């Protein structure tokens, strides 16, 4: 994504990856409309844009998405080929921050919709050790490789998770998000799940303020 906002030099960085079919600027403008700048003075926020790829749920149309899906339901298999290929790109993005001297345990990763799913894959499957993860209106497939990875990656369990889901979401059903959270808890993840009232597949002002409060507790200013 296009926006990198560094409000004050600090050794603490926050990596916000909004993995969905939009640009970084688009998400940033959406959040600015709701609450003004999505910012904390001691943290750096990054909004990378997903690559343009063919997306099966859109009949193969090109879209900015981090991975493909066979369908937008949890009962189908994951699209392993694109999930594995995007791992390399995401690791490259994060490695750029690590090369600046920022340790992984000072980075939070998260996203909206399929972006939240990609954040869960990154933190609990491919790159364990983050300070925290957030997933907004997201879900994992029933047979997700994330669950398998957690069985062999106890260090991932140190990474807390917060999930939010609109009660009126008809694209990604709230029960899919809750089931994902319950399954992650069964595997030992310290996860909390919050229903956002009167909310479709969207972001809400109160939800973003809650998220900022949670982020500030995970990486407080010192």
What's the SSE blueprint?
Blueprint: E1 3-6, H1 24-35, E2 44-47, E3 52-55, E4 61-64, H2 80-98, E5 108-112, H3 114-126, E6 132-136, H4 145-151, E7 161-166, H5 174-186, E8 191-196, H6 205-218
Parallel strand pairs: 5-6, 6-7, 7-8
Antiparallel strand pairs: 1-2, 3-4
Helix pairs in contact: 3-4
Defining traits:
222 residues; alpha/beta; Rossmann fold; 4-stranded parallel beta sheet; two-stranded antiparallel sheet; 6 helices; disordered N terminus
Strand order of the largest sheet: 5-6-7-8
- Tell me the distance between the termini: 29 Å
Low-confidence stretches: 1-21
Quaternary: single chain
Q: If you average the pLDDT, what whole number results?
A: 85
Decide which structural class fits the backbone: alpha/beta
Describe the structure in your own words:
The protein is α/β, with parallel strands linked by helices and 222 residues long. It has one domain (3-218): Rossmann fold, CATH 3.40.50.1820. It has 6 helices and 8 strands. It has helices at 24-35, 80-98, 114-126, 145-151, 174-186, 205-218, and strands spanning 3-6, 44-47, 52-55, 61-64, 108-112, 132-136, 161-166, 191-196. The chain has a 4-stranded parallel beta sheet, sandwiched between helices. The longest helix is centred in the middle third of the chain and has 19 residues, at 80-98. It is globular. Residues 1-21 have low confidence and may be disordered. This is Lysophospholipase-related. It comes from Holotrichia oblita.
């Amino acid at each position: 994504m296009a926006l990198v906002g560094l409000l004050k030099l600090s050794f603490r960085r926050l990596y916000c990856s909004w993995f969905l079919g939009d640009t970084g600027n688009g998400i940033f403008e959406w959040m600015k409309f709701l609450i003004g700048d999505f910012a904390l003075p001691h943290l750096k926020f990054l909004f990378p844009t997903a690559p343009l790829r063919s997306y099966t749920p859109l009949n193969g149309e090109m879209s900015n998405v981090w991975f493909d899906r066979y369908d937008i339901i949890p009962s189908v298999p994951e699209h392993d080929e694109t999930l594995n290929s995007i791992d390399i790109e995401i690791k490259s993005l994060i490695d750029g921050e690590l090369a600046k001297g920022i340790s992984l345990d000072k980075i939070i990763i998260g996203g909206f919709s399929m972006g939240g799913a990609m954040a869960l894959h990154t933190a609990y499957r491919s790159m364990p050790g983050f300070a925290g993860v957030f997933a907004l209106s997201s879900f994992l497939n029933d047979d997700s490789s994330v669950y398998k990875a957690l069985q062999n990656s106890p260090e991932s369990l140190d990474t807390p998770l917060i999930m939010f889901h609109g009660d009126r979401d008809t694209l990604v059903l709230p029960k899919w998000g809750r089931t994902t959270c319950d399954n992650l808890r069964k595997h030992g993840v310290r996860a909390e799940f919050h229903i956002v009232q009167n909310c479709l597949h969207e972001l809400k002002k109160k939800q973003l303020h809650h998220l900022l409060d949670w982020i500030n507790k995970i990486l407080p200013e010192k």
